[in-house]
Every structure is written in C-alpha cells, then in structure tokens.
Amino acid sequence: MSSVRAYTATSPTAPLTPGTIERREVGPHDVLIDIAYAGVCHSDIHTVRGDWGRVPYPLTVGHEIAGVVAHVGSEVTRHRVGDRVGVGCMVDSCRECVNCRAGVEQYCLRGFTDTYNGTDRDGSVTQGGYSEQIVVDEHFVLRLPESIPFERAAPLLCAGITTYSPLRTWKAGPGTRVAVVGMGGLGHMAVKIAHALGAEVTVLSQSLKKREDGLRFGADHYHATSDPDTFTRLAGTFDLIVNTVSASIDMDAYLDLLALDGTLVSVGAPPEPVPVTLFTLFENRRSFAGSKIGGIDQTQEMLDFCAEHDIAPEVEVIGADQVNDAWERVMASDVRYRFVIDVATLREPATA
Ligand code: NAP
Ligand code: ZN
Ligand code: ZN
C-alpha cells in the first residue's frame, strides 16, 4: 500500500478537503499512473451530494483521469513506463460474461467496478482521480493520442465516451438531424462529435448565452428552451435527441420534437424518476432510451476519432483548492465547458 495526496469529500455538504488515501500495491496486471489532470464531471457532484443514494465517506471522486505510466506489473503487455494514458469510469469488470466478452464492460452482468465508490478486489471502496496516483488493471487503461494535451484528454474519458457511444449506437451521421439538450461538459462534446460524424446538429440550451460557442463547436442551429416557441417550431423534426441535462426536464415536451422513428436517448442522470406519457411515444413511433458511458474498445476508438478529427474538450484548468468553487459553478450551469484539476497543485506544499 502507498499513501497519496487527494482532495476528498467527508460528507454530502462539507467542502472537499486535502488529505491522503491509500493505493494498492501494483499487481502483475496493474499499472501505476502519475495523474497529471482530473476532469470534474457532474456525476462527481451527484455522487458526493447523495443524489443517487448513500455513499461511504470519506470518498475521493474523479473519473476523467489523464497521466503517465510510472510503473507496470510483471505481466503487463499493453502499457509501458512513460506512456501517456487515461482512465475513465471503470477500473474492473468480470471479463467473462457475455457483455464483457462483447466489449461492453459497462454492462457487465456482474457489475463493473466504478473508478470511485466501487468495491475493489480486496473489498475496499475504490477512490478516484482527484489524487496524485492511481493503480488500475491494464485492461482499463487507455492510450492517449499524442496530439491531445493531457488537460484536454482527461474529459474525453467520461464526457467524450458517454456522448460518442449513443451517437454511434443511434447512427448519427450525414442526413441525420441530431439535437443536443444542455451544453455543459457532456453536451459540448456531443455537439463536436455529432458534427464530426457529419450530422446536422441543433443545440437546445436554456438560453442563447452560449450560442456563439455552440456554432463554433459545430452546431448548425441553436435554440433557447426558455422560449416556448422553440417547442412549437421544432415539433417532429429530429431523428435523434441526446439529453445531457443533469436535472429533471419535461421529457414529453422533448419527445414531441422527434420525427418518425426518432429516438431520445438520455445520458443525463437526475436524482428523481422522470415521467413519460406513452401517448407521446405512440406518435411518430418514437423511442425513449438510455445509455451508460461506453466500453473500453469504443473508448479507445473515441480517443483516436477525436485525434483524427482534431476535436477536444474546452477546458478551464484549476488548482485543487479551487474545486469547491468549480462545483458551485457547475451547479449554476456556469461551466465553459469542463473544469480540469491540475494535479500538480496537489503535490505542491501548502503555502501559509
Ligand atoms: P454539466 O456540465 O453540469 O452540464 C449539464 C447541462 O445541463 C448544463 O450545462 C445546462 O446546459 C443544462 N442544465 C442544468 N440544469 C438544468 C435545468 N435545471 N434545466 C435545464 N437544463 C439544465 O454536467 P455534465 O458533467 O455534462 O453531466 C450531465 C449529466 O450527465 C449529469 O447528470 C451526469 O451525472 C450525467 N452523466 C451520465 C453518464 C452516463 O453514463 N449516462 C456519464 C457521465 C455523466 P445549458 O446551460 O446549455 O442549458
Ligand atoms: Zn462522468
Ligand atoms: Zn462481465
């Protein structure tokens, strides 16, 4: 075991505070990573604040991890010391069930191991990326393309794959009309990726404040959902809607925007159940779906796709001591478009 510095939650309401956590010894198939940057995902906040259920404190969150391999176990073949690597939301799965074999470890029938708030092999609670180092099985470690800097690569490990995966599943591409609801961390990546896939992209945001940005990211159209006219004008016009909103929205109002055989896929994960009126689905033979992150092979595919298409998240790099303010700004939809913690600031001795 080794002790590493981390920024940690001690209760649903208290600010995160600096401390230390333990990392397991590097096993034969493990990789030790010196973390360079860790992205701030809204899921970190939902988890710590108890939106999705009780969690064991203290808990260190963070599942958008980019860094450098510092040490490898004796059997490791996929990575070498010095490699630029990333870790997302999963650090293990059974690797034997039909879903794991199909490369969709996020749907492991025995449950994958979350990067934080999961149960590790030794029974302890996994601890995430707001920390100096992490030990992960080589299978769950991704290769970062050279052209993407660490701080911009980190958010791809959750925001990137969570939007890439449904866009591929529901075949966004030339001739498809895709709407993205909410333009935060996930949403802005959905816009960039859908555009790179060749789809006609519309952003549905609460206001027009980020319109210029949306168009720059590749959106063809941008509408405010605060304007009731938006829902009248756009009724029945989308093949695919990707909902990235972290709060409950009036799902029926958005389902009404789907064309024949259209699908609304929700990746946003509000705490409450969301009511849907079946009669809204009957119309236009619509589908309402969900999607969870993406498998390891598809995550690598997404990283390589982003490098090839020269797309990466827009980030605001912060010191670890700014993370509590950053969380408040995420809660206020005031994020442009992903906060990323510079983990070097954890290593520096605190100034008096
Ligand atoms: P985020 O950066 O906070 O973005 C969410 C966006 O939703 C905001 O920027 C805002 O966009 C919009 N929004 C927020 N509150 C709203 C409200 N009350 N009404 C209408 N729109 C609102 O969050 P994120 O990190 O992208 O995560 C988004 C959601 O996805 C979270 O619930 C997260 O837990 C979930 N998630 C799911 C998966 C998965 O596998 N399914 C993976 C990662 C994250 P505008 O300002 O443009 O309106
Ligand atoms: Zn996430
Ligand atoms: Zn499995």
Tell me what you see in this structure.
It is built from twelve helices and 17 strands. The strands form four sheets. Strands 3, 4, 5, 8, 9, 16 and 17 form a seven-stranded mixed β-sheet that branches. A six-stranded parallel β-sheet has the order 12-11-10-13-14-15, covered by helices on one side. Strands 1-2 form a two-stranded antiparallel ribbon. Helix 6 links the parallel strand 11 and strand 12. Helix 4 crosses helix 5 and helix 4 crosses helix 10. The longest helix has 13 residues. The model has no long low-confidence stretch (mean pLDDT 97). The site of one zinc ion has 9 residues, from helix 2.
**Total DSSP E strands:** 17
> CATH superfamily of the largest domain, please?
Medium-chain alcohol dehydrogenases, catalytic domain
| Tally of structural domains | 2
| SSE pattern | EEEHEEEHEEEHHEHEHEHEHEHEHEHEH
Which key features would you list for this structure?
352 residues; 6-stranded parallel sheet; single chain; 7-stranded mixed sheet; globular; Rossmann fold; 2 domains; Quinone Oxidoreductase, Chain A, domain 1; binds zinc ion; alpha/beta; binds NADP nicotinamide-adenine-dinucleotide phosphate
